[in-house]
């Protein structure tokens, strides 16, 4: 690298030339007026030129995408209602009936007796007595049972949403850079006072170029993320309840019966006489009593049943939509550049009485 730099510096040094160019040799014509002397030389000029380039532009286009929407639908659900139905039951009523009973009464009779003495004697009589006995009956009791109920709970679900995020991207840009460019060939620099010409070989010049570079940028994109959300659901739970049932029991009732007892009476002895006495007898008699009876009746009860009903719910559905996006396209354009060319022109040399020194 060091030797290349030295060679470039040597090429830029003006080397005196003792040879005259062919263009500087003039021919003397036989005329009254002497033609001007001069020579042809080349000059590097920059000529403008238009070239076709391609530029990157953004164009708004429409892209098909899917959007999540909610649509209403009817869903059949089971709802509880109360339905009336007839169930058999027993009702206790009092019914009047005529019952034949024995009642005591006094009857006058003639009985013999001994006047001398009175002796006691035993006589069998019928006396009423109450006894206890068991009769069947129905008793309402509470028994445990299970009932299915629906309980609302909150359930956590995941729903999708769009979140804007920054993603890295690369963008091509053009930056101006000055570079060195070598110009090959001999270049005229002038003459010294001896008439020697100075030329330079392979000189350098600065050139402005546009260099592509990639710049890191951040663009916004949408990313689908899932967030937690609460949804109300109904779950079935078994709840303990108490229902009423009938159980057969035996209750104690009192019943009237007749028993034979011995009653002490006085009877005469030895002397028999007839006298009027009252004797207790039992005669039949009808008595109105109330008797309880059980009759079957039908009572109305409410029963929980499940019927089908329609409920309006929202269902997730996907809908195709068009979303605008920016698309990079290449479009033609014209760019003005400067192109170096060599132009040939005539240099007139004027002669004076005194020699001019070239500096």
Automatic annotation (TrEMBL):
Record keyword Signal present: yes
Signal peptide: 1-19
InterPro entries recorded: DUF4816
The entry's keywords: Signal
Name used for this protein in its record: Uncharacterized protein
Organism name: Photinus pyralis (Common eastern firefly)
Phylogenetic classification of the source organism: Eukaryota, Metazoa, Ecdysozoa, Arthropoda, Hexapoda
